Amino acid sequence: MAVKSDPGRVSRRALLAGGALAAISAGCSVVPVESPRAPPARRRIRDLGIGIGSLTPGRWNAITDVPGVRVGHVTRIEGEGPLVPGRGPIRTGVTVILPGDDVWRDNIPAARFTLNGNGELTGVSTIDRHGLLETPIFLTDTSNIGRVMDGALAWMLDRYPEIGDSAPVPTPIVGETWAAFLHDAEGRHLTEEHVREAISAARSGPVEEGAVGGGTGMLCYEFKGGIGTASRRLPAAMGNYTLGVLVQTNHGRRAQLRIDGVPVGREITEGMPYEGRKSKSILIIGATDAPMTPVQLGRLAKRMALGLARTGAVSMHGSGDLLLFFSTGVRVRRGAVSMDVPVWNDEHISVAHEAAVEATEEAILNALAMARTMTGIHGNTAHALPLDRLPDIMRKYGRPIPGR
Amino acid sequence: MPAERTLRNSITDVSGVEVAHLTVAEGDVQTGVTVVMPCPPSVRHRKFSLGAYAAGGGLSWTGVEVAEDFGTFASPIVLCNATSVGAAYDALITRGHKRDPELPVDDGWPPIVVGIDDGYLNDLRRRRVKHDDVLAACEAARGEPPACGSVGMGRGLVALGCKGGVGDASSAASVGKDAFVVGVLLAANGGAPRGVGAARVVSPGFVAIVATDAALFPAELRLLGEAAIRGIDAAVTIGGEEGRLALAFSVTNTIDGSLTAPPGRLYEARRLADDGLGPLFDAAARASRAALGKALGDAAVVTGRKGRTVEKAPADVVASIAFTGR
């Protein structure tokens, strides 16, 4: 069974059998996760000279440009060689988005959209029935959903002694994409402690992208992918609001990838990963401080799917493409009987649609641009998008990068 | 589908459906797990059609996105308390990996876990129910009529101001010349007797698992679930904010082996005319009410946290709800 550079596809069952590679790896000393040569530096798509859309990004060009939003990652990269279910190699993590300081006491409006349902996003009944988000948002790999739900709930039980006593028990919002190309999924390898760590690590400011947090073991158009983010300012005349998007990519086929309209994926056909039948997915989380209603946020959630489409995806059957959008511009205090809320004028929502599309498109490209090549179970390798090839390809299709 | 059949007034009257309860009765911890399997574990790579109906406040369940977008499921349905959802999910992931490491959408994934708040009698914060408990419950599932009342998920439930619990029942229905059966397993938590107010549990929720051998598609199954909920609504008083959830599935029109089927292979399904479905909806309402009657009627008194004791419902309350199911 050839594994290294064979462009043919190999079933996951064959990969798990792993016999030949186990024999090769057993004789190796510690093998670095990346190539021993210093990998080329990763840069965000905008820093490569490729501008997406026409609106202006926020200060960090990240979901954290929405005031009060914090992001934290815990990343586990340990071990290499053949898969030993329950032991490793480990390529996973969790990313947490804290929409505010206390979203359980101060719920915020939210809505969701299922573009293609082959995925899991837990805890959505509160969003569906009340249009409210009451827990942080956690992104991880498929097999760790239960672990992360448990860890998130443990954190909430500690913080709020009334939960499970005089107050109802919330269901944490946990989303997943499938990491088993690189990661010992059956082993899971996340605990309650990791979830607490991610929450403690949550920060404002620039967001780490690529193979980190929930995106550690993930792909993107069959390159290495993971976490990406971007933001856009809404026009000052509308109130100086910001809209940001964070993605956990894992979706797409190589030939589908488009960068600013250019079919880059068709031009780079080497470095293809193997995969089983399991298709992959994308989680897209949007945020704004513009005061939107749940109905309006549902519309914005749908627009993020158009941003995804700009990067070439067709939302395949096996892809869990799940989208969620929240607004920090309205707070619904738990227990308040009634309150005054501002409501955005629908006639002025189109620019938010545009911002949602652009920020999603750019966030996905950032995940691609920032992720490094990674080797995982059985020596399976997901190759980083070769950034040095972009100038020639973009020029070939009549969209030269200025100055390159 | 045989025209004559002896029904045992159980959800297990629907061919292949299996149930297990795991009960935890340990002082302040009065809780449990109830598992409903759509088929015996020997059946592999079979997708079932599913329709979900939800009313009132949020009852949380997992596997929502596959259910709503594909209309299918292929997982045990686990009812557990609201702080054990993560543990139950993790257990179903363990079980799923053992069945197929790819966790395919036609065999074990995504897990369907419904969380119910039994915190009036149960110390939820202790999170006593663990991964291994849920695995054991899945292993114990059988096609025999299960016990009812203060067992499994029903251990700590409070309904109509009295001891609540789980109950199951079935009802026959004919559509044209075909005879079908609708089975319901109900977890009853909340509500009040008709015309009477009652002490409220913190987060009430009625959860009905509805099974049938009628050839129904997801949209029709949603209506079947709605009928089961309306059957309960007609029997008791339920506040608008109280949660009601029905997950309804059919054991026919299943999709087998879809991930390995050759391109171009079409499946054969049967469709019943919409205007003939009335008897099935009536059967769902009857079975649901009968299940509620059995849940209340069999519910042993339980003393739980904070020394709270909840007595069994009086005979006249049980009688006013119960149906023969025929």
TrEMBL record, chain A:
Alphabetized InterPro entries for the sequence: ArgJ-like_dom_sf, Peptidase_S58_DmpA, TAT_signal
Molecular function GO labels: aminopeptidase activity
SUPFAM superfamilies (UniProt xref): DmpA/ArgJ-like (SSF56266)
PROSITE patterns: PROKAR_LIPOPROTEIN, TAT
Pfam family for this entry, one: Peptidase_S58
CDD domains in the cross-refs: DmpA
Family membership noted in the UniProt record: Belongs to the peptidase S58 family.
The protein, known as: S58 family peptidase
Organism: Polyangium fumosum
